[in-house]
Design a protein that fits this description.
It is globular and about 60 Å long. By secondary structure, it is of the alpha/beta class. The longest helix has 17 residues, at about 40-55. Strand 5 (about 140-145), helix 7 (about 150-160) and strand 6 form a beta-alpha-beta unit. Helix 1 crosses helix 2. The protein has helices at about 5-15, 25-35, 40-55, 70-75, 90-100, 125-135, 150-160, 185-195; strands spanning about 55, 65, 80-85, 105-110, 140-145, 170. It is built from 8 helices and 6 strands; from the N terminus they run αααββαβαβαβαβα. The chain has a 4-stranded parallel beta sheet. The protein has a two-stranded antiparallel sheet with strand order 1-2. It has a domain at about 75-175: Dna Topoisomerase Vi A Subunit, Chain: A, domain 2 (3-Layer(aba) Sandwich), CATH 3.40.1360.
Length: about 200
């Protein structure tokens, strides 16, 4: 990219580091930023800096929050504190909240156990989950990690750690997506759907 000025090349390289952004998209984003009026470009840079400075983990659930106290979900009197839904990332909380069905609390691990990526149990927010359960008042812990190898391994590991606390540990059901056809489902998905069937 020697035909780009060094500052533009640097901007493109930073955009390319974002997840899901290839080199062509990074170039488009960089050119778009350069086309912004100076005050908009400054506001964009300020928003990134401000978010990085102000947003931190909730002391209770480890979800992203702003301010010193618990996040809005943990602080809400309308949420059921006896149920904790364990998710891998803050974006999974957003996905669960979109359903408007779940009324309990969350615990964000900030990753899953992945030996290939050198992520072990000590790299995740597991200790704080065990402390919450040990404090009492929790009746059920829902494992809502992804149904892949790492997600399954993390859920199994946590369920073993939680066994001594005498709490109900459940796993999100998964199987055939709504609106799809059985003929297109793979063997593993069909097996999971059969295992997770319920009475009508």
């Amino acid at each position: 990219m020697e035909y780009f000025p060094p500052a533009l090349e640097n901007l493109v390289e930073h955009f390319a580091k974002l997840p899901g952004i290839g080199m062509k998209t990074a170039q488009r984003l960089a050119f778009h930023v350069l086309s912004l009026p100076p005050e908009e470009a400054e506001a964009f840079a300020q928003a990134i800096s401000q978010a990085k400075q102000d947003i931190h983990c909730c002391p209770v659930c480890q979800n992203f929050t702003q301010g010193d106290g618990p996040c809005s979900i943990c602080a809400s009197p309308r949420r059921d504190p006896s149920t904790i839904c364990v998710v891998a990332d803050p974006k999974d909380v957003v996905a669960m909240e979109r359903s408007r069905e779940y009324q309990g609390l969350y615990h964000v691990l900030h990753g899953v156990i992945s030996p290939m990526n050198h992520v072990g149990p000590d790299d995740l927010h597991i200790k704080s989950l065990l402390e919450r359960v040990a404090a009492g008042g929790v009746g059920e812990v829902i494992m809502a990690t992804n149904p892949d190898t790492e997600g399954e391994a993390t859920a199994m590991y946590l369920s073993r750690l939680l066994k001594p606390f005498q709490v109900k540990v459940t796993r999100l059901a998964y199987g055939i997506p709504v609106g799809s056809h059985l003929e297109y489902a793979d063997d593993a998905t069909l097996m999971r759907a059969l295992e997770g069937r319920r009475e009508m």
